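Figure 6 in text form: structure in, sequence out.
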């Protein structure tokens, strides 16, 4: 076959093969899709492709997250919570940079928050991972942190974390997603838009969504009556004594603010029903 004829023969094949190869490259791997922490979906279609540095998927044994290199914080963190994750391991307090980030990316360190007036605010809480030292230590990676105002982090946010763990003690299993949005929060030293010489963005709000089910429930088992607790809180001072329940909103409203698609593995009809409601229990 001549080179010209060979080229004409191969060109259509390449035209078809390249898009397929690209889709396969961007498609979640088996490890991603099988993560227990992403059982209800990947809200932003985060990927392990380093060409997407602001929607980069990090899979830990203890949680999964979408990371933004330019903001220096997670976009969202997702994790399963049930009795199997809880034990008697003490809080490790070993805040540190996440060395699993791609080579060349800035790795936020513990000291980047020093003197900022903001707490190193866990998304997956330390107290949700007390089974082993390894599990608890994983929650102190800085990729699991956002700059949170002390009154938010130590007030209604902490109260909600405690409440969700109380549901586990009642025999429930939870799938939780949390994250920040907006820019500009008020900590103990006043309002800041960034810290760490601009490397870490301070969010304006923090949100959390918790789906409450019986242990072993799959996405297909989520129904119109499944309880979903979602909150949207200001990242500011002066709210330490506020009841977390006053910040309850619908999942739909958080989707509107963030652009994410939550609970995407749940049937669309059930999503429509449970995402439009505001929890009132």
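Output sequence:
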């Amino acid at each position: 076959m001549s080179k010209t004829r060979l080229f004409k023969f191969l060109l259509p094949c390449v035209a078809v093969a390249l898009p397929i190869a690209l889709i396969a490259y961007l498609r979640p791997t088996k490890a991603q899709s099988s993560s227990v922490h992403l059982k209800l979906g990947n809200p932003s279609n985060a990927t392990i492709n380093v060409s997407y540095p602001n929607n980069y998927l990090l899979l830990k044994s203890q949680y999964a997250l979408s990371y933004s290199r330019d903001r220096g914080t997670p976009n969202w963190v997702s994790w399963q919570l049930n009795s199997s994750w809880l034990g008697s391991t003490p809080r490790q307090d070993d805040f540190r940079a996440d060395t699993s980030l791609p080579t060349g990316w800035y790795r936020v360190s513990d000291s980047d928050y020093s003197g900022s007036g903001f707490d190193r605010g866990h998304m997956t809480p330390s107290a949700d991972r007390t089974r082993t030292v390894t599990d608890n230590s994983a929650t102190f990676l800085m990729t699991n942190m956002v700059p949170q105002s002390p009154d938010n982090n130590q007030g209604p946010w902490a109260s909600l974390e405690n409440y969700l763990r109380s549901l586990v003690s009642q025999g429930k299993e939870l799938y939780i997603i949390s994250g920040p949005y907006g820019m500009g929060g008020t900590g103990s030293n006043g309002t800041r838009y960034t810290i760490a010489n601009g490397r870490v963005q301070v969010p304006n709000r923090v949100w959390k969504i918790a789906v409450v089910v019986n242990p072993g429930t799959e996405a297909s088992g989520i129904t119109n009556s499944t309880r979903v607790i979602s909150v949207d809180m200001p990242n500011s001072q002066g709210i330490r004594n506020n009841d977390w329940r006053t910040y309850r909103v619908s999942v739909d409203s958080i989707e509107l603010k963030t652009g994410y698609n939550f609970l995407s593995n749940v049937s669309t009809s059930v999503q429509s029903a449970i995402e439009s409601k505001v929890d009132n229990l």
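Caption detail: The first strand starts at residue 56 and ends at 59.
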